[in-house]
Amino acid sequence: MTIWVPEIDAYTGSRYRAIAAAIGDAINAGSLQPGEKLPPQRRLADALGVTIGTVTRGYAEAERNGWVTARVGSGTYVSGCQDAKAFQMPHVETSGDTQHIDLSLSLPPPHPLRQQGLAAALASIGQSPEALSRGVNYQPAQGSAVQRQVFTAWLETLGFALEADELLITQGGQHGLQLSLQALLRPGELVAADTLTYPGLMSAARQSHLKLVGIPFDDQGMNAEALRAQCERQSPRMVYLTPEQNNPTGAVLSAERRDAIVALARKYDFWLLEDGVQYLPVEQRLTPLYCLAPERTLFVFSTAKVLAGGLRIGVLRAPPVLLERLTQTLRAQSWMVPPLLVDVACHWVNMASAREVMDWQSQELQSRQIMAAEMLAGFTLQAREGGSNLWLMLPEGFRAVAFSEQLKARGVLVTSAEPFCVGSAPAPQAIRLCLGAAQDQDTLGRALQILLECLRAGPLASPTL
Length: 465
What we know:
Layout: H1 15-29, H2 41-48, H3 52-64, E1 68-71, E2 75-78, E3 101-102, H4 112-126, H5 129-135, H6 145-157, E4 167-170, H7 173-184, E5 190-194, H8 199-207, E6 211-215, E7 217-218, E8 221-222, H9 224-233, E9 238-241, H10 255-268, E10 271-275, H11 289-292, E11 297-302, E12 314-317, H12 323-334, H13 339-349, H14 352-375, E13 380-383, E14 389-393, H15 400-409, E15 412-413, E16 415-416, E17 430-434, H16 441-457
Parallel strand pairs: 3-15, 5-6, 5-9, 9-10, 10-11
Antiparallel strand pairs: 1-2, 4-12, 7-8, 11-12, 13-14, 14-17, 16-17
Helix pairs in contact: 1-3, 2-3, 4-13, 4-14, 5-13, 6-13, 7-8, 7-12, 9-10, 14-16
């Protein structure tokens, strides 16, 4: 009987880390399937010409990264692949959680104008025979021409140059991602993304039975040379990018790398999926990918991060050649986006209060970023100017999961790195703080003070075995 034997000579560094990395790569490539048993340690050690201790350490490292699970008396098995990192978004009660300050979810900062704007939009619809008629009748799957024109005009005021004929109305940004993957890719095809990326993309890829591969990135975004190397091994069918602010780190894709990635997309013929849901004012943005490569870029936008997450209305911009495929997929999913909710958004964005709350939000997030940078001075922070998230690299000795639990015990909720890791990418010892989620700046200040106290106290001692 043959056993799985990795080619560890291709990896640099220690042998045990090479074994762990090979396990992760094999899982990512599909060579090792969820539930599959790894070779006994002695047999693999003999096959590789290493000691049993080296294999033991390699398996332990793979288990630490969540790729495998050791069962006493049975062996070591591949974990449920990406399922172990599935992102669970807890339900947020409208009454709020009085025991915790929740900085774990990427939410826009609360403001009474949001509820007031929704109330005004609903009242306006009640006085609009056209909107009421649309609300009780079937509409085109792409969305009515009137509604798409409203979104086009609104997005133009935000600095997005789009055409109504190239838009589909969606049930939020997540729906736009799912729609793009389901319409354009077949099960088993490859999607590439930053090694740390939005968990919703991973969930959508799993649902469509796609393979996901992580591409290294830094503070200038996705490494174009690493993407080129991946294309030479196995070209992805689609590359997912958040050019203006990586979630969770806030990294910005530089202009040079945008050009390089567009060139690769044309050379290797893959689609670009550009996520613009995390809104920034136009003066803080670089040229969108859909402007650099309109013929192969799908662009996702939503009202969730600027007006109201509960509205679940967004748009998907796509090249004209793809519109029929996308429209057919949307029709198969839900026939259409509920036109009444679309009209709520359309009426709202035409009101002055919509721009007022967006302008306030931009200033508020700037202030919160400044507060966090000042309070956490001396620690390693990454953030996008004006963005909602803050990425904190923990000092030596800290473990992100344990630190998150420590903060939870003190009443502060954050997210460790694990849910953002693509494929076999090891999780850095870091946490994401969603500064916009706090009720106000005073609440955020209390949370940051607790965080600071826990950092200064040092890492928790490991339990004695």
